[in-house]
Specification:
mainly alpha, 71% helix
Length: 194
């Protein structure tokens, strides 16, 4: 697993950057995918999938926040001035709607509308985020996020292989994945290249 924190992110959040991101991801995944993880536990695959999703979410957060800080810095902000965004970034990290938007981007990496700059901008404002140098900054953040996401394999080959194998098993057996609906199964298939 690559570190998800960059020098810019550590410069703003300090040594707690990794823990804040990891905790937010873990909490959101437990809330959203409990039934899927429970089903996978019965098959002995829960830990592998949960860790892969956790890693993918942490990478998504790290990339999003790194791009945010780089774009703010592009407006001439110094590393010291970036520190004024600390409480805003902490609140943004803990926001469930931000987590959901990034999880959707992880689940469906081929969609060019995820994450949405409008959703991220709205959430930044809703959590009381400090004013940004430009309202259009989120467009640049999302473009950079998508570019970085295509360079990195957000979901590992192991996870894709496992999910493909499990989905094929259930489709052939005429069953469904407990706790998922048809749209979610399609998303998993899309993520897995199926």
């Amino acid at each position: 697993m690559e570190p998800v924190t960059t020098s810019l992110l550590v410069g703003v959040l300090g040594n707690l950057a990794q823990k804040l991101i990891a905790d937010a991801c873990k909490d959101h995944l437990k809330a959203k995918l409990t039934s899927l993880f429970g089903w996978l536990e019965k098959l002995g695959e829960r830990d592998k999938v949960e860790l892969a999703y956790q890693d993918a979410m942490e990478q998504a957060y790290g990339t999003c926040l790194e791009m945010l800080l780089h774009n703010i810095k592009g407006f001439g902000y110094s590393d010291e001035e970036l520190k004024s965004y600390r409480s805003s970034i902490e609140a943004f990290i803990k926001d469930d709607e931000v987590a959901e938007e990034l999880l959707n981007a992880v689940r469906e990496p081929s969609r060019d509308d995820l994450p949405s700059p409008d959703v991220l901008s709205k959430r930044w404002k809703e959590v009381g985020g400090q004013e940004l140098p430009s309202d259009t900054l989120w467009n640049a953040v999302v473009i950079a996020f998508r570019r970085q996401a295509t360079k990195r394999i957000i979901l590992s080959n192991d996870l894709r292989e496992l999910l493909n194998r499990l989905l094929n098993y259930h489709y052939l057996a005429g069953g469904s994945v407990p706790g998922t609906n048809t749209m979610h199964r399609r998303r998993i298939g899309a993520v897995c290249g199926g």
